[in-house]
Structure of Urotensin-2 receptor 2:
Amino acid sequence: MVAQRRGNVKVNGDAAIEKKIKRGNAQRQASQWKRRAGTLWCAVLTAVATLGWWYFTLDQDITETLVSRSVVLQRPKVFPVQCSEDYENYKRFPGCTPLSCARAVTDTVVTREEALALRQLAERGLALGGSEGGASILDLHSGALSMGQQFVNIYKYSGAQIKDVFSKEDFDLYKDVRSRIQGMIADTFGLDSSRMYLTKPTFFSRINSTEARTAHDEYWHPHIDKVTYGSFDYTSLLYLSDYGSDFGGGRFIFIDASGNRTVEPRAGRVSFFSSGSENLHRVEKVTWGTRYAITVSFTCDPDHAIDNPTLPSPVTQITP
Ligand SMILES: O=C(O)CCC(=O)C(=O)O
Ligand SMILES: [Fe+2]
């Protein structure tokens, strides 16, 4: 009896232990499922966040190619854009201040031969100096030439040797090309060309993939030319080398609220636009090769006008 009782007690005790074990197992299983569900939720949330971020950046990065390098335009391609409100704060110059804003590209104003001649001019000039970082400039007006981490005056720096670098023909070509670009801008925007003036800085640029050393080398930042350069009302860029064969990266990018729009450089191609904040832009980083271009810009304000560049007089005398 006692034994039986004991036996019964044992049986009852085993059942209780079994129950406990079962309960423990169930609890463990439940908490395992909870953990698994938690991990799953984390994974789902991460995936959703990643997808959202991807979608968001995708949206921001939508890139429309306005004009690709392989296309040769037979007539200017004009892309109207709404003028920014900034113009309300600017002084107006009748016949010049934009009434409508745009960006445009032409392949017929400058020939590839002329672009090559200008590129050779840039190569000769820039071979005398050059930045340590990826971007070098040469300004024929002021003589500013990138040199290491600063600038020198190429006319002073090379003295009489300048005659081996530039000829009168080079300067004549620059003047001719500048005047054709001015005519094209005037026609496209419906301006009086005689009320537009060349303004500074106008410069040749050479960009490669070398890492930037100074702020001057950081050409890729988004900017508004009218803010950066003050006097600019119309910016033009004459490309002297080809995207995709002379260099990689280095596309010109208009940054619009609805996405990015690019112009692919091509030797002889002129891209021009009103310089206000309707044409916020940047240059993509060059990843290989060397990119040459000239920035030639115009102002409506006669106080900011500059003349065509000329060879310094001692050199002009030396040149036959
Ligand atoms: O070289 C280019 O394509 C653009 C240069 C530019 O934005 C500038 O000179 O202000
Ligand atoms: Fe610019």
Summary: The helical segments are 2-60, 112-127, 154-158, 168-189, 225-229, 313-318. The chain has two domains: 1-60, 63-318. DSSP finds six helices and 16 strands in the chain.
